Amino acid sequence: MQQDVINLLPDHVANQIAAGEVIQRPSSIVKELIENSIDAGATKIDLIIKDSGKTLVQVIDDGRGISNNDLSLAFQRHATSKINKAEDLFCLHTKGFRGEALASISAISHVHTISKSLNDPIGKSIKIAGSKIQSEDPVVSSVGTSFSVKNLFFNIPARRNFLKSDSVELKHIIEEFNRVSLAHPEISFSFHQNEKEIFDLKKTNLKKRISSVFGLKLIDFLVPVKEETPLVKISGFIVKPSGCRKSRGHQFFFVNNRYIKSPFLNHSVNSAFDGLLSKDYNPGYFISLKINPAKLDVNIHPTKTEIKFEDEQSLYAILRSSIKHSLGIFQVMPSIDFDRDQTMDPPYAYKEKTPSNPIISVDSSFNPFKSEKKSYSFESNSKNAKIEFESENIQNTIEGFESELNSKQIKVFQFFNKYLITALPSGLMVINQKRAHQRVIYEKLLSSLSVKSPNSQNLLFPYEITLQQSELMYLLENISIFQAMGFDFEIDENAKLIKIKSIPSLFDEKKIDVLFENLFSNDQEFEAFSKSDAVSKHLSKAFAIPNGKKLNIEEQQELLASLFMCKEKNLSPFNRPIIVNFDVSEIDKKFN
Ligand code: ADP
Ligand code: MG
């Protein structure tokens, strides 16, 4: 017989479960606490963290405070002062409304809060651990609230172990801090980690806030965007194409002063920039949208970074045309007339010119059999896979073979601009060029760390780049490793500017801009044994020759020779195979 099996979960267990949704990592606490301070009307917010928030997250504000009577209530689930009835959800003017954050945070950490409201003569302190109130005492305090969160996930070891390295967690915190501080330039913010000041942002306007968050250099590239329609009020800045980067670090949408992610709106901006950015570069934008809250549903995501708009198509079109307008007005783009088919227009400088007779030029060295580019396609028997490539590749292959045969050594040739192929006594060896190069760079960098003066080249002209705070901190944190590898930087922390004066001789000076773009646009996580291992891996990933890059025969031979000098030839630094062998007997079988 079926027994009764349903229990109601005790509150502290329910809170722990709910906490999982709201609080994923220290940066979630930073977000929730700062948002509460903003909702409380704070004009100044201080963030203090220790060990990337794993030991302490503290937020101090000068907002309206929590009354003595409300203080313990604020920690109960669904306790909120921000809405009373369901209809209020449709006219939200605050960041919080679920009444979940404080209940969640106090379920999984040790919280100490001190708060005083205007109307109470004295403040109150409360300590809570794992949802249980430990103490409540009157304290003397100024109006406002201080929240300390210690020992995050102390009662859920699995969650604690799941946290990433300090530098990754710090990066998440900086990201949250940037989002909220950019959404509210009218509020002063400070941020300290392990007693070191990371940001000190005074109340200002959006343009100046952007430059104090991302460095002075960016300000020259900012172009204002402004549009007012009955549906939406758009304001903010876009980054001129010449200032855009490969990383997406300069992409911010704020809807009613809240940072949101929207692939849909991002697409609209991308389409406005269409044709203005080279491949792999992303538009930069800091755009604030003001929309009637009744036309929004912020309820669809527990951490509220996603949003649903009522009239998406119109929003898309308005945003796109206002950005195109700014790009045009500020002469980033030649024409501001979007509706006309521009392919029909003569280039505008030609309007006043007198036409000249056309000239026919003939390339006398043209050989139709040698360089004709055609697409071939053939089907491989085994997998029925269609492979398409250009005749140039076949020509290379044949030429490669021929020259190898002529020199009576079959050494190496490149295939599809991504594999190197070489013959062995027992068959064929196919080498992935990108991974091979990653391995070579990785081992050379690691070994350069063990010599006294690594091979380094001075740049003729020092190369300057502006970095984001987390990038700057990454460099500062690993500066001794970079130096030991042969880099030399000058760092201006205030302007967030680095001047690169020398780089390891291993790298190509001419490509330095691409190299550093790649270094910072790549934030995939990987395993590393030590800091120097991590830096070497990171650099090998950023600086390796890409697939699709044509190598001349000397480069091919050099790469192969360097690979065979490596201690580990078969695996890339990220444990992916570098070499695949085809035994002659396998090839023989195919001809049966
Ligand atoms: P929500 O923000 O969704 O209302 P929270 O759990 O974050 O829920 O906060 C609960 C309540 O505690 C808030 O509604 C607010 O009344 C009060 N509160 C929290 N933080 C502050 C603060 N820094 N200053 C003033 N009141 C606060
Ligand atoms: Mg809240």
With helices defined by DSSP (H or I, 4 residues minimum), what is the helix count? 17
Q: Which architecture name of the largest domain does CATH use?
A: 2-Layer Sandwich
Identify the CATH class of the largest domain. Answer: Alpha Beta
User: Terminal Cα separation, in Å?
Assistant: 67 Å
Rg calc:
30 Å
The CATH H-level homologous superfamily of the largest domain = MutL, C-terminal domain, dimerisation subdomain
Largest sheet: 8 strands, mixed
Q: Give the strand order, joined by hyphens, for the main sheet.
A: 5-4-3-6-2-1-7-8
Strand content: 15-25%
Mind explaining what this structure looks like?
The chain is α+β, with helices and mostly antiparallel strands and 592 residues long. The protein has 3 domains: 11-203, Histidine kinase-like ATPase, C-terminal domain (Heat Shock Protein 90), CATH 3.30.565; 207-332, Ribosomal Protein S5, domain 2 (2-Layer Sandwich), CATH 3.30.230.10; 374-522 and 529-592, 2-Layer Sandwich (formyl-coa transferase, domain 3). Helices cover 32% and strands 24% of the residues. It has 17 helices and 24 strands. It has an 8-stranded mixed β-sheet with strand order 5-4-3-6-2-1-7-8. A 5-stranded mixed β-sheet has the order 9-10-13-11-12, sandwiched between helices. Helix 11 packs across helix 16 (553-565). The longest helix has 18 residues, at 166-183. It is globular and about 85 Å long. The protein starts with 10 loop residues before the first helix and ends with a helix. Residues 334-353 and 366-408 have low confidence and may be disordered. It binds adenosine-5'-diphosphate and magnesium ion (MG). The site of magnesium ion has 5 residues, from helix 2.
